[in-house]
Records
---
Amino acid sequence: MAIFIASTKSISRGNGQSAVASASYRAGCELEDKRYGKTHDYSKKHGVMSADIILPSALAAANADIDRSDLWNKAESAEKRKDARVAREWLVNLPHELSEQDRKELAHQFAQTLADRYGTIADCAIHQPTKKEVDRGADPRNFHAHIMFTTRTAELDTDNQIILTDKATIELSDTKRLTLGLKRVSHEIKEVRQIWEQIANEKLAEFNYELIDSRSYAEQGIDIEPQLKMGAVATKLEREKYEQELRKAEKAKAKGEHYEIDKTPATELGTINEIINERNELVWSVELTKNQKVNAAADKIIFESRANNEREQNEQRFEDIKYRLDISEYEIGVGNIRINTVKRRIDDSKQRVEFNKQRTQGEQRGDTWSLERISDIIKHVDDSKQRIEDSQQQLADRVGTIYTAAPSPFNDAARRERASKLDQQQRRADQDARKHSYRDERLHQYAERIKLFLASKLLTRNDINNRIRWESYETAEDYPDKYDERQIEKLDNFAQLLGLQKSRDYRIGSRDIASHFTADFVKQNKPIFDLLTKPAAEREHYKNVAKDFDDFKKHIDHKRTVFNASLIEKLGGKGGDVGKMTREIVSSFTYLAALDTYIADDNRVDEAKEVAKLHRADTINLTCIQFKHALFDVHKLPLDEREKHSDALRTSLTTFIEQYSSELTEDQNTTIQRGVSSFNHYQDRATTQSRGLSR
């Protein structure tokens, strides 16, 4: 079965490593290292099946090209620190069950995915165990890929040549990733491991092979003890002893003698690892599934039965052959059916896509009617109750009028006539009351069922049957009737705003929430009920609404990028991460002003304005964080760049506080103040006359 291995490590100068040397070894070729003035020649290395350069899709589409030597020499020259990371390597195990071509396609697909994800260039080398390694005890099925990535993103210059620019996001520290709204690097690495699991399992599933699992043995509930790290010295001692034993065996064979190779470990670490390995093998034997044991017992019974009934089986051989032919024909027919089924599924998928589009359009038209109908029914129940009260009052008035208008209490004919009219009116009123009461009761029950349905949808919004499980790679295209992440957040905020908590007793919680859903309440919160009843239609509506703001945001983002580029020369240079944050801070004022203009535009849709307001708040919060980190590290810049960046930060902070101090939260004020304190501290140390900031 295939095993899961997807590990990463940095190739760093601090460890005495070189990107050029590492690439030469993994690709099995000769490369010149211009930084150190060396030539690394591993062209005689065995076991290299292929080595290919893989560019990000954007560069490949532009017909860009670069050779291995130029690539890794550029990677070395792009780094200035003596302990810089010059490359990152991912090592993945390739399933031995697959063919050589399938393994290569699998490795290249993984490399392409990461190259597009980070904008870096990959150098993918696929290795197999050599005969010498197999003779030493290596597993001949150990096919694996060494994929080296540049630590900086690749772009094209004005001459259409590839250059390496900023550090890729996976190479940034956790602090810097936080300023960009990214999670920790450890979480990023875990996601990449899951990406390899998904890509490899898709390929294994094509051939019905057993799938791999990215979880650790502990997470899978398997009690496997990890072996100790051998290290270079212990590994060398073990290898030397094994080679000595091989030479002794060869000498004995030349003399016509037999020599039993001593496979006991030569070091204490090797002995401990051998014990751990034996222990793990026992654990694996215990982990044998019941199906395997049952199959073994069934095989034993079958073999015994065949031995006891050999004569009868010989007599029926002709029937068995005929039966097998029939089975073969049947399997061929089943295969054809499966092929046709797959084709039909492909056609059905296309039809479902088209149907979903049409259904979404129909649902948009039906949503308005449904919610208006719900509101009307609830209002009708209230009106019916009022009509019953009015009917009873009218009846009482009529009865009072009849008795008041009686001409003579001693006229028998008139008295009988009045009594007859009174009886008729009473019966008619009773019939009308019963009729309206029955109708109103049914409408009331129907309205209550609808309100309970809406309440249950709100209560169960986070159930796996109602929300899209993005952690399991579900998408809105696959499950259009489930709530996506944005919709879940919107429903959570709605429930929290109204103080609606999920009760331990589901029925009590549903009735409690349903009691809030009056006719006026439904009308006031129509968008939420649109979302509850028809998430697909609401999602499509949101896309149409958000598109207007997305187009606007792309426009102002582009203008901001151009403006930031123009600031580099004015600030005396790029200034690394500090320069990037400083340019973002300087350009934030015109960016926020553009957002304010959009929000104040009466021609814009209200929902699009809400999206713009959220983005504006995020921009202000990010600017506060950028102030903090830029002020923390501006003293690390060269003198000329430091003075210009410090002046830009000082001026920008004053303007920012004047314009947005009333909108800042306590945490945001604290964030800025920490940066200011750090800036003033280093200013005091650098010069006797402080040029610090004040707030």
---
Amino acid sequence: MPKSQIISKFLPTLLGIATTLIFGWAQFSDIPLLNALQQRAESMAYDLRLQAGITTEQTADSRIIIVDIDEKSLADEGRWPWPRNKIARLTDRLFDAGAIVVGYDLFFTEPERNMAQAIVQQLENSQPKAEQLINKLSKIAPQFDNDQHLADSLAGKDVTLGYLFHNENTAPVGQLPTPLQTLSTEQARRSGIKAMPNYTASLPLLQDSAAASGFVTIWPDPDGVIRRTPMLIRHGNHIYGSLSLNVARLYLFLDEVEINTSPIGNIDTVDSISLGGINIPTDGSGFALVPYKGPAGTFPYLSASDVLNGNIDTSSLEGAIVLVGTSAVGVADLVATPVDNIYPGVEVHANIIRSILDNDFPYQPSWADGANLIVTLGIGLALALLLPHLAPLTLLTTSVAMAAAVVFGNIWLWQEKGLSLALAWPLILILALTAVNITYGFLSENRKRSQLKNMFGQYVPPELVDAMSQTSENFGFEGESREMTVLFADIRGFTTLSEKLSPSELRTLLNRYFTHMTEIIFEHHGTIDKYVGDMVMAFWGAPLKNPEHAKHAIQAAMKMLERTAELKPILIAEGYPEIDIGIGLNTGLMNVGDMGSSYRRAYTVLGDNVNLGSRIEGLTKFYGAGLVVSETTMTGQDDFVFRRLDLVKVKGKTEAVKVYEPLCLKETATAELLDELQQHERGLDAYMKQNWMQAEQIFDQLKQQHPDTRIYALYQERINELRQRNIGSDWDGVYERREK
């Protein structure tokens, strides 16, 4: 196989493999644009997959209640921030109603001003000092210490306060809670948990009084949507837990949290967090996917003012976890999520807590990148090897089936196992590989069609070129041996005819004649080999294989004779001489291919059977037949009626061949014609048996009945000649034709 064909055969596969490797490399590339495109695509796929799993029948989870500092609360209780004694009263009301754990998605970072102390300070700076008033106010000042009131309320209750980690270059505010875990310097260096340098935490007084504190720091994805949240953050050598983690820990009456890690290279990546028997899967940095169960309002809401004023059914708080947040304009904590563009931040924590309690967490483990790479390479390599060998429709069907399998498999892992793997990137890869193969196929098809048109356009009809372009067969330049049928057609008496016409008239006549003959050959799936003077050479069975090449050749030859008969009176009326043609057909093995020199080449056939076809055409005038075919052409053609002509040895051949004259289709044969042929066969049988008298009688009778059929007179002449020669009993009936 030529090098160009080898390259052409394997190029689409190599392109597919290269595309797959590029996609695999892009998954770990540091190029910002690629990262952004990939993350954006995966985010969209993640959102669609998440939304598809949310049902309208989702019921509110009564285990988690959200107390909302809403517009109504501000209208009833005054503008925010509220005095901390009011927060203390709210805390007391919640626990009095039966709440188990209360989590504040609020910050208490600065001390609240004590009004009594403030007045005392002003009086001390005044002249003259009001000592008596200062003493009285100093005694009652503790009653106005709202921070202490809140601290007293928090004491002994399972309350978790919120605080914030950040990157701001400012002094730390407040006091951090006791860490979940303290690392050594080496452990901290290896830790994969996200580190934050600064914080804004609760007052030490409140921090010491609360049962726990948890950070509420959340980072959106680059598109501003909250899909994951940190469960752990490292500050220095200390690891701290989120608000949702600590609320769940208190609810489950647990004192410790177990952080499960695995070393990957030089990093200790987080695998999961254990709360008793509950496992919270995370990525390597300690982030968990937020398991949204519905849009905003999925959890029951109570207005904070209604709680303060006792306008609620306290049974709704019995045994519940309460999260206190705010949705009021100007102080609302609203974020964008996959399920809602305006979503209360407090519900993000609620979704995390619910999944912890249900032990039902989606996850994207630390090994997800490796799994995504394996999936990408597996799908890509499979399609790279398969698609180039498929027809366009099958290619598209296969690609759609592969994409459907990826989607259903990915959704099954998500819904049944909670595993989140890449979805968009494999689908984009499938689309890319499909596009690569379709584009290559289109360009290759156009190139192939152009090559075929350039090579065969002058030999075969356009529809045959199109049919050739639809197959994977290599029509080319390499010669091959193939069984085919060759046709030679010649204008009889062309030399005499050409002497009667001017060069211009002769050219016009030949062009007209060749146009009609070529049209017929093309209509019957033939290939024009060449025009030589008045001769047309054509063949069947190449470049496209044609199992009915002999039949189509006979049909074309009979049609050519019919068309020539139609042209005769028209040409005579126009002043041209009368024309007659003779056609010879032979079937057998022939060499076919693009042959010639480096200066000029042609797609042609060569071989002994081609030469025999030419010799058979030369017999047409001798036998007085318009069409003569060899026995190999006649064999198996049961749709036609043939007249056996002779057993003849043509010039240049050592073996005799049987030749026949196709007369018509069997279905159109008359009874008279069939009776004539039966007599003719009896005459030939007598002739071959040297029964000259019987043969002569039969051919004499046939000649009288059909005086225009030359073959009968020919056999009469031959019988007379053979009688005189007195041939022996070993005569084989072969007639040797010494002329071309």
---
Amino acid sequence: MKTLNIKLFSILLLSILLIACNFKPNRVVTSEIVTTQSLLNEMVDRDGLAKLSEHSFKTLQASSYSRKSISKNQEGWFDNADASQFIKVDTIEGRKEHVLMDVDGPGAIVRFWSTWHAQQFSMGTLRFYFDNANTPQIEGRIDEIISSNKYIGAPLSQTTSPFLENGGWFSGHNLYFPLPYSKHCKVTYQKADESVNDVLYYQINYRKYTSETLVETYTKGDLESNKYKKAISDVSKKLNEYESVVNGTQVDHLNGIVKAGKSVSTTLKGEKAIKKIAIKLNTENLEQALRSTVVSMEFDGKKTVWAPVGDLFGTGYKISAYKGWLSKVKEDGDMLLYFPMPFQQSAKISIHNYGKEDIELVKMDVHHSDWEWDDTSLYFHANWRNYPNVKTSEKKDVNFITISGKGKYVGDVLTLFNDSYQWWGEGDEKIFVDGEQFPSHFGTGTEDYYGYAWCSVVDFEAPFIAQPIGDGNRSPGLTVNSRWRSLDVIPFDKSLKFDMEIWHWASTKMDYAPTTFWYGTLDAKAEFMEDVVGVQLPVKLSGKFEAEGFKVKQVQGGEVITQAFLSYDWSARSHLLWRGIQKGDQLETILYSEKERKGELTAVFTNAPDYVIVDVLLNDEIIFKNLDLYSEKVSLKEYSIDNGKLNKGNNSIKLIVKGTNKNNLNADKLGVDYLIVQ
């Protein structure tokens, strides 16, 4: 009887503990403490994306969004005054500190993005106060903490998409190094010069753990003491290694001709997980095929993936090489995806050709391995939405995705064609989790959400963010942005709704197509699934080639940057600037044309007092010899030939410095605006 009472007491005690801990039977609960080290480990655990998290948390965002945005039913919902918006101003030891974030723990900062106006910013001090400390655990110049942190380094601390404008550098600033805290976190900014009206934008993604979660607070001096030096090195190395983690998998192959209107598929059986998918297409009109060819996937009999192949792999409808933690595209057209995709019994991967032409599926390699399915396992989803010819005259929210059920949101790709010389992306993300009336994620601009800034046209790649092509940012053209989430995944229990504002500088039209990536339980579903008509629409490409969009292949001498000026007449407010050059230096760039073009070829160069004389070669043939770009004033000049030709595919444009004009023997620059054949 005594033994029975002890057992009953134990069962009762366990029940009380489970209720107190908000226990959920489909989530693994451990006693592990959340630490900086554990978060770094989690950051590079791809398999963890496909499981419910060990520790329950909400992902939230503190940002400088306009405080006039209160409700979608009130004026101000689309207000764009989203710089230098702070919670309050604290006076600490005589210092005026603007508060960016002030939240209770336990929690962890998992992403910090910021930017500032190069000509209107005093480069002040950023401070982190953890657990109600009177003195900051982290303190320093804002750029030296976020994007040029010498104790962290790239890719966890880096700038993105930099360009020079009016003598100042503009870029996005990103910090992915996690900063956990047990009780409280306050982040402040102090101007270096109170007479300067600093223009500061920021987004801070952070986790809010349940109250019983044990969290080890970041300690002052941890970075300076090199406590995490090895961990940072290991994580950084892993984030830049893309093949090693899929070793040991089995591979199923599929290839051949896929007739117009037909499909091919492969099926896997057993309790497994897809760890990598590699696809390559070949056809006469590859750009259209990247949109009209759709990948669909079914796991355990349920269709969860339906997206055009180019959008699914983060390249839109033009092959643009980049590499990230969860996807990669190679110059030769290989496209790779590294999301883990577990299933209990079967998986079916299909290629549907909704186009008018046959395509060659050069390869589809599906790498898979065993997976122990349990109550924490989740199904992979990818959904594509298309908004063709969306009018920008009226600001509006468009839906990326609406999900019902339980899961986690892990990223998105945005492919768009801008039909204007004006910037398209002032719109803010608004993410509503579990029926929120006001979004827990309210952003400061579309490019800010994707980790860059100031409508930059400069291509970039990083483990979790990329712009493989930005031709449409300041001129008619294609732009592709992607953001993959790791520590900043957004868990949801009941629902998730992701809206993005359409907020364009011009009244025009735009093609706008987001692809969203998420994981869910068996009953989780997206509101919108397929759009066959949308993938059959003709894709758009520009016939005008902005030089700042050329791919730099080889530089022998000097430095190549993108330079912008609002006051100059460059067609996209920018040009390619090659500076610090001298006689004999060479620059080779690559221009891609989706088709052969013949006719009058016109190249527009910048002329200026410090510009050189140059030979210009197109596909190794001189088209302009001894082109003298000297001018007493900065101006633009057209140079033309009658029988110009661009090949279908890549074209080489080579610049060779021949010397300088006698009026300035010290000239050391060259600028190219654009090239067109018509």
---
Amino acid sequence: MKALISAVLLALSSAVNAQAPPKLMFQTDQGWSPRVNVPADTVLAYGLDSTLPARIADWRAHGYRVGVMTALAWGRYPRYLAQAGDALGDETQQAAGGRALLHDGPQVPYFVPTPRYVAFLADGVREALEAGAESVYLEEPEFWADAGWSPAFKQAWLTHFGTPWQPPDASLPAQAHASQLKVALYRDAVAQACAQVHAWGQAHGRAVACNVATHSLLNYAQWRIVSPQHAFVDAGVDGVVGQVWTGTARAPNTYRGVQGERPFATAFLEFGALHDLARTLDVPAWWLADPVEDNPAHIWRDYRDNWQATLVASLMWPGNAGFEVLPWPNRIFDLTATYPDEHGGRHAIPAAYQRVLQTVFHALDAMPGTGQWQVAGTRGLGVLTSDGLMAQRAAPATSDPLLGEVHGLALPLLLHGMPVQPVSVEQLAQHADTLAQQRVLLWSQQGQGALEAKTAARLADWVRTGGALLRVDDAATLGDAVHDALFEALGVTPEAGTLAPVGRGVVGWLRATPVALSHASDGADRLRTFVQQAAARIALPWQTASALVMQRGPYVIAAGLQVPQEDAIAPTVLNGRYLDLLQSDLPELQRVVLQPGDHRLLLDLDATHDASPRLLAAGGRTTALERANDHLRFALDGIEGRGADDAASVVLALPEAPHAVTLEGKPLDKTHAVYRNGLLRLRVPAHARWQQLDIALAGGR
């Protein structure tokens, strides 16, 4: 039976490859082992080295679909280092003074994508496809803002612009040119690689997707990295993996003058920016979360708390094709992967955390693609952003290190329960209906630059049909551009702090900078008051909330917003019947109080009135629930356990207590099959092999 199940799943995975994108995937540079038998349908075999064909075959043999993922801006490519030889230094990204920018020592530099380097990547991807990879994921097309001094970059400057290279820090125009070139180089590298991927697929009668894995615009800007982002339009990109995880979400920001980490809020805005990117490119997206992170110095409790925050934030941006449930499973599940705990010891992943992860992965596999807000403040609020955020992060004029240009506008609304959405000016140029769901937009050119006339005209048209556009800039930021394209398109320059009618909408100018507002103790109040006034002028109801709660099918995703005491309002309370999927024992709850900093993934037991038997939650992969002759049957597999503590939990809804439960043909201990309140709770040994469960229903034998 086990061999048959594995063969059927492998055959099905091959059959659907041409039609269905992955739902759950993960990336690894290692082969399969029982401890990394991750409950997902697709593995991304990482890197282009001599072991890749064997790794692809290994994962396929264990029932996974296999794609290949490889780094663009950096990578462990000894074969290419040998090809480049003495020219490697010229092709390494360099800062002023010739300082080499390295990812992990001199053997893993950040590359300038020269024609030779791009050809190497394209050849490596072709070899991966020939070895059996079904899809391609090009990761992290990145140029450091401080880069721009290497000989290869100087040559690319001459080729691209037709003029001699200038030091990027020599002037604002020079820095702008450097950023444009960085974007163009990696945009063209991806376009060339994807063109070859598609050509290979066409020659072999296959539809091969070429995807990009990228951080958000907001994170790249804050981390001082330049990347193509919206410039990938028409570059042949078929999908986007949105890389938000604890490492990016703990990037600090400032609110009411207090600098700190706000992982949920930061991740929410990052996923919002990536949602905007995927919509601009009109491609499917997958949201990443990481149960640990790159920094190994944190304790297990910290990793778990921040994973929950980013997970919940990702689930509040529905419409994605699926999830990258984790990167690097070996650093999470290997028994040698130990991290500190709050007591000063070190140990491998706690059993409870391992059970929660697999239960959540099962829920993500069933997660509906749409959702509705159940608790939220005023909706339809957006903050305009631009890829220009990345172009002002290095000398001669650097913007706010904590990205107050965006956070100063977004956090005062988000932390009061208003699900504010980043809206890129680049999307306005691609999609005429971008603003259909927006009622109020905030814009600042601080750290971003002025709007183009075409974009300003589109915004003006939107205002005339009933929108409210609020500009947040001081006179020093605007300089001589007070009468710029935006105000000219609107035909009005409002007095500072006032709202002026334009058609059926309004335009306002708050004479302050977002950065200054973020640092002022009353800055958030000033901004909210101005937005509230604008909302009133366009008859948009004003509402705040202490939590954000979204429902996606039977799943309830909730976050209690963590704000200073002066912002606190009464906590949100959810009443009903829920399974708490972020607790290892899956407790049933009737009342959930969302305190500040709470992050919940709940299964609403009353979301459906279907009385038939249903599989509600499971700590691993499951086959479809089959019913025949008063028996329910399904199979379960997952990560190999270390002992009884690593057992998998399974919960089913049954109208009556079952007559019997067997595992692999043997009765399951009655203490591991408990029926109460319409729920059958099973405790099953955790194994990296398919185990058959059979439930004889009441009246059956």
